[in-house]
Amino acid sequence: MRGRVNAGLVVGGLLVGLVVLAAVVSFFWTPHDPTLVDAARKLQRPGGGYLLGADKFGRDTFSQLMVGARTTLYVGIVAVGIAAVIGTPLGVVAGMTPRGWLSELIMRVNDLVFAFPALLLAVMLGAVYGAGTLTAMIAIGVATVPAFARVARAATLQVMVTDYILAARAAGRRRTAIAVRHVLPNIGSVLIVQASVSFAIAILAEAALSFLGFGTRPPTPSWGRMLQESQELLFATPRLALWPGLAIALAVLGFNLLGDGLRDFLDPKLRRIRAES
Amino acid sequence: MTLYLIKRLAVLVASTAVAGVVVFAFMALLPGDPAEVALGVNATPEAVAALRKQFGTDRAPVAQFLDWFGGLLHGDFGTSYVTSSPIGPQITDRLGVTAVLVLGGMVVALAIAVPLGTFAAVHHRNPLGAAISAVSQVGIAIPAFLAGILLVFVFAVQAQALPSGGYVPIAENPGEWLRSLLLPWLSLGLVQGAVLTRYVRSAVLDVMREDYLRTARAKGRGSTGALWRHGLRNASIPVVTVLGLQLATLLIGAVVVERVFVIPGLGDLLLNGVAGRDLLLVQGVVMVLVAAVLLINFVVDVAYHLLDPRLR
Amino acid sequence: MLKVEGLTVRADSLALVHEVSFAIAPGERVGLIGESGSGKSLTALSLMGLLPEGVTAAGKATMGGNDLVGVAESRLKRLRGRDVSMVFQEPMTALNPLMRIGAQVAEVMTLHGTPRAQARQKAAELLERVRLPEPGQIARAYPHQLSGGQRQRVMLAIALANEPDLLICDEPTTALDVTVQKQMLELIAEVAPALLFITHDLAVVASVCERVLVMYGGRVVESGPIREVFTRPRHRYTEGLLAASKLTPRGTRLPTIKGSVPPAGRFPDGCVFRNRCPQATPTCETVPALTGDGHAFACWHPAD
């Protein structure tokens, strides 16, 4: 794997690292308990141990941001994980047997799932099983499967026509062996890039869901819900919207830049593979 | 070409049917019996059975599905188990509102993306073009509802120039109608505009490298003329394919934006339906949304095939 | 008619074409030969004002009283396609895939003032003139429905539409099949006005042109009537080129020029060929001037 370390990679990596750091540290320490309601501190301005102030229930904004980072990462990891684990094999199979009925079927189903955006799936899932972090993760994950399947398929198609694959097939290697030993390692870089981009989308989706009340349930802090709570006080206390908004934007920006940077780093040729997700 | 059209139409119909099955199956998983819920804890078994019969929920699932889906096909969405009012009119009322919201957002997005993206591509080597690229990168990191809140803060709270929410039907007062939609359109449009800008830039950059632009200049066109007359039309093809995807995203974005600005559209109806456990309503709205997405994809596919003579 | 004096083409600070001078009389067919990296394409592109981004031309080139180099795009574009036109090497990508052939041919005329209906009419005639079968059908077709050879004929039709004084062809047949090549060359020979024909193929240039310029390392190293230059080359590079293109008796080695063409910017100063020339001496460290009229060459130790 060659390539130049570029600005996007660095900036993206730093931003993502910041989010990860906040989340990890929050397991061991936060300035205050983010779920602790303290009427006396209601809407306190920044200062005196409350770095960014407190919200209408007296909860510390900074601590909420830190624990909210956990939720954000948690949802992203599980959602992207689901999408990658389900979507990649589907895409590889479709790519290795491009004219077969299985491939056609997979791609049709793919398109169908694509018609159910993450938000819709989450709402439906939430209606049946009760809204919460779990349903949000699963819904976003399922909605992201088509993107992974498409990218995996496109990359597999490209790999299948290379000489070493032809050599492996001529040598009589079984298809599963070819898939695991040859195809997967070579499409790996494309998938990593897709993972980063999908992570960013997952964060946006989770934030939207929490904003609508379909995401993480209180009292667990969530950036999206913090934004929703800030809406009614926008006139008096705009800073309540500023911090979670900034957190979301920076996290998404970070993952997008990281994705772009990884794309340039891992193989400049990758830019040719358009992953429309 | 006609063969393709027929094939594609068949896929559309099949997908819609399958989607219907999925939506119905999903909602059928909802625990609880609508009849029991409607009548309350103290209802007699006979009353519940009678209501079930009225609702039609005593029949086999397949029959229920066929009945419901069949009804959909002629615009009959059934009657709500919870509110006892017909669902169809509710949907059609609000469909118009959401459609206007989505279309307006798309117009704003295009108005931003086409000039900016083209500019960024033509000037991709100088700092201004790079700046636009950077700004669009930031733009896509902002979810629509965040943009909405920011806009409300700037225009409604600080400047007091536009309303922070609410909707006025066009029939009542066109001026107020416009004012109530401006910020929602901007929220949707700015974010989608950022996404589209990147696609437009990429498409135009690709076209700029093509030989036929040089041929055009050899004929006597200046470089701007060549790009305008030959390049943009060719660049619009990949952009059109993306537009379809973006419309679907806009539709979902509209759901959230309706919450931010308290606009009575489909999204609002959906969320209310879920909160009120109005099963049939949710089914209906989800079906409409999914069908809309499938239809948009169909139109885009066909348009793409029509635009590019190599595919005909 | 066309007079080029001291044309120099630069990319950043690197000179890719040095002080090239030549002239083309009305109706004259001149070949420009050289290998890749000799600067021949850039010379042609600079006459049309079609140099790529970052590449600039300096010097003087006039045609029929109009300046071609150092002139603003707005003025230059009026000459392109009307007084001087060009056919490029790769026909497969030269046409807009979304426009019909007829429209693309008509465009070059409407751009220079011909009314639409007349242009369309003339387009059909032009397609016939370049010997395309079923010109009416071709006019309504799209580029992807035509073969490479057919597309190149269309390019020729476009180039000739406004009856330019000079036609520049940059390797027009290199991307075509051999049988198609021959037909194309015959066609060009028949219909071209004054011609600047660029190629690396000696046989091709001999069949079309009367006079030839030999380029190496961004400079003209020899020029003159084809027959003379090819039978009695004076510059050592031309000598090497000709020797390498002759068939040799069985069992003998093909003669080649020692070494390979250096990348841009790495040519030796002084005589640009001296690092590969068997006759090089310290004298060659000074740039030889192009001497001789009629048959000119830039060499301190020419062959005789």
List segments of chain A where confidence is low: pLDDT < 50 over at least 5 consecutive residues. 270-277
Shape of chain B: globular
The assigned structural class of chain A equals mainly alpha
The share of residues in helices of chain A is over 70%
Largest interface: A-B, 37 and 48 residues
Gyration radius of chain B, rounded: 24 Å
Uncertain runs of chain B: none
Give the termini separation of chain A. 25 Å
Could you report the average pLDDT of chain B, rounded to the nearest whole number? 85
List keywords for this structure.
heterotrimer, A: 277 residues, mainly alpha, 9 helices, 70% helix, disordered C terminus, B: 312 residues, 12 helices, 78% helix, 0% strand, globular
Concise overview:
The complex is a heterotrimer of chains A (277), B (312) and C (304). With 312 residues, chain B is mostly helical.
Structure description:
The complex is a heterotrimer of chains A (277), B (312) and C (304). Chain A is mainly alpha-helical and 277 residues long. Helix content of chain A is 70%, strand content 0%. Chain B contains twelve helices and no strands. Chain B has helices at residues 2-28, 34-39, 45-55, 61-73, 87-122, 127-139, 144-158, 174-208, 211-219, 223-261, 266-275, 279-307. In chain B, helix 1 (2-28) packs antiparallel against helix 12 and helix 10 (223-261) packs antiparallel against helix 12. The longest helix of chain B is centred in the last third of the chain and has 39 residues, at 223-261. Chain B is globular. Chain B starts with a helix and ends in a 5-residue tail after the last helix. Chain C has 304 residues and is α/β, with parallel strands linked by helices. Chain C has a domain at 2-90 and 170-209: P-loop containing nucleotide triphosphate hydrolases (Rossmann fold, 3-Layer(aba) Sandwich). Chain C has helices spanning 40-48, 73-76, 101-110, 116-129, 135-140, 148-160, 178-191, 202-208, 226-231, 236-245; strands spanning 2-11, 14-24, 29-33, 55-63, 66-67, 84-87, 166-170, 194-199, 211-216, 219-225, 296-297. Chain C has a seven-stranded mixed beta sheet with strand order 6-7-8-3-9-10-11, sandwiched between helices. The longest helix of chain C has 14 residues, at 116-129. The interface between A and B is large, with 37 and 48 residues.
